[in-house]
């Protein structure tokens, strides 16, 4: 961690309310969130180890966008829209795969080189004077930072990933993030879609106040030391140290036994689980044994998929592999517990008895996330929902009025 970076202090007297309940069940607002928040901010799509060789590819579907990440013959990783320029068919189908020297559209057989250029169309004489240079795959904005692949589908307010995440450079360097390897087992994971708005998932994940009550394994592992730190720019760091006691639960007891101390890590990270949050919906997490990223992918207003990918270190010993598996078990159980909390929170906002949140100082991360949404979509500051067909207009008027007063 860049020691010059200062966490945002929790104010002595602050507004402890969250977003009003209507913001979790408004289709018009969800449409705005998709177009002006989720698609305009960086999304994690994988790691360079997921595409290790020539022709290896990853697919990433997000809202109505489809991305294809592929490593070219020159070793360069590139990102394109997963749409053939002829009729829009998917060039690749599935989560990951490999193509030898070209990508062939399964609809009509158009062929693309691994660098996205059009090699040729089937029956080219039927297209008249077709300029192949004008029909290459359309690129998606991509940035690779410490091995992690970030995509952005529309221009947005965030700076480059390197600038945004610069405060965490030292930590990711210490964790040797670029050297991580994709895991053969449990590599890609996701749960069944949750019947919740994506913000309800974030609300649970953005605070550790609930750890002591809701997560027995995490509390047993590191709950005594767990803390959330919120930083400017929409990033956060949550961390907990383990090893001060052997653990009561079998998974924790075995994990603390098998997880060796990595002397190559700085002392402050050797016995830590660290989570790096990235607005609006992503987290990269490290344990001494491995790493993962996870994110909340909205499918619709009230349907969200939580998923991600797991990574390991090279040359694992049997003991290290066992520790990584136990960490996965603990984290998986925690995720199931969080899912139920998300459902309860999301459904409560439809009740006539719902009176908004009343946040603890330990839940300041929830407030910080909501504040960024308030800046981007000022309409969410209204206690009562405007008419659905007027919401976008009201939001634009409020944004214009705010700009004039600055």
Automatic annotation (TrEMBL):
One term of GO molecular function: dioxygenase activity
Tell me which residues make up the Rieske domain.
42-151
Question: What's one Pfam family here?
Answer: Rieske
Q: Which InterPro entries match?
A: Rieske_2Fe-2S, Rieske_2Fe-2S_sf, Ring_hydroxy_dOase_asu_C_dom, Rng_hydr_dOase-A
Report whether Iron shows up as a keyword of the record.
yes
UniProt xrefs under SUPFAM superfamilies? Bet v1-like, ISP domain
**Is Transmembrane among the key words of this record?**
no
Q: Which cofactor does it need?
A: Fe cation
Report the domain of life of the source organism. Answer: Bacteria
Keywords assigned: 2Fe-2S, Dioxygenase, Iron, Iron-sulfur, Metal-binding, Oxidoreductase
Q: What is this protein called?
A: Aromatic ring-hydroxylating dioxygenase subunit alpha
Which species does the entry assign this protein to?
Defluviimonas salinarum
């Amino acid at each position: 961690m860049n020691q010059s970076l200062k966490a945002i202090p929790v104010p002595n007297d602050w507004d402890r309310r969250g977003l009003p309940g209507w913001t979790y069940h408004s289709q018009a607002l969800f449409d705005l969130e998709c177009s002006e928040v989720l698609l305009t901010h960086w999304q994690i799509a994988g790691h360079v180890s997921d595409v290790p060789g020539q022709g290896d590819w990853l697919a990433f579907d997000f809202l109505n966008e489809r991305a294809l990440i592929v490593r070219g013959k020159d070793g360069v990783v590139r990102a394109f829209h997963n749409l053939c320029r002829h009729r829009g068919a998917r060039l690749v189908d599935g989560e990951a795969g490999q193509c030898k020297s070209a990508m062939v559209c399964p609809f009509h057989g158009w062929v693309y080189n691994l660098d996205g250029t059009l090699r040729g169309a089937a029956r080219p004489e039927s297209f008249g004077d077709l300029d192949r240079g004008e029909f290459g795959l359309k690129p998606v904005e991509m940035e690779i930072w410490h091995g992690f692949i970030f995509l952005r589908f529309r221009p947005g307010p965030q700076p480059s990933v390197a600038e945004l995440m610069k405060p965490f450079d030292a930590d990711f360097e210490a964790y040797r993030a670029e050297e991580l390897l994709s895991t053969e087992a449990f590599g890609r994971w996701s749960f069944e879609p949750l019947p919740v708005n994506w913000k309800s998932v974030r609300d649970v994940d953005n605070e550790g106040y609930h750890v002591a009550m809701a997560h027995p394994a995490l509390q047993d592992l590191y709950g005594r030391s767990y803390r959330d730190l919120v930083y400017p720019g929409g990033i956060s760091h949550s961390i907990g140290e383990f090893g001060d006691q052997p653990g009561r639960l079998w998974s924790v007891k075995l994990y603390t036994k098998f997880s060796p101390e990595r002397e190559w890590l700085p002392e402050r990270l050797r016995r830590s689980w660290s989570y790096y949050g990235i607005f609006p919906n992503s987290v990269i997490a490290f344990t001494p044994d491995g790493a993962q990223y996870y994110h909340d992918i909205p499918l619709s207003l009230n349907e969200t998929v939580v998923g991600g990918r797991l990574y390991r270190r090279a040359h694992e010993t049997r003991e290290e592999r066992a520790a990584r598996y136990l960490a996965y078990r603990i984290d998986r159980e925690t995720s199931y517990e969080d899912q139920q909390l998300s459902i309860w929170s999301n459904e409560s906002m439809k009740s006539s008895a719902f009176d908004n949140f009343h946040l603890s100082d330990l839940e300041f991360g929830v407030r910080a996330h909501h504040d960024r949404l308030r800046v981007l979509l000022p309409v969410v500051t209204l206690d009562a929902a405007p008419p659905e067909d007027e919401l976008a207009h009201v939001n634009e008027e409020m944004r214009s009025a705010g700009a004039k007063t600055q």
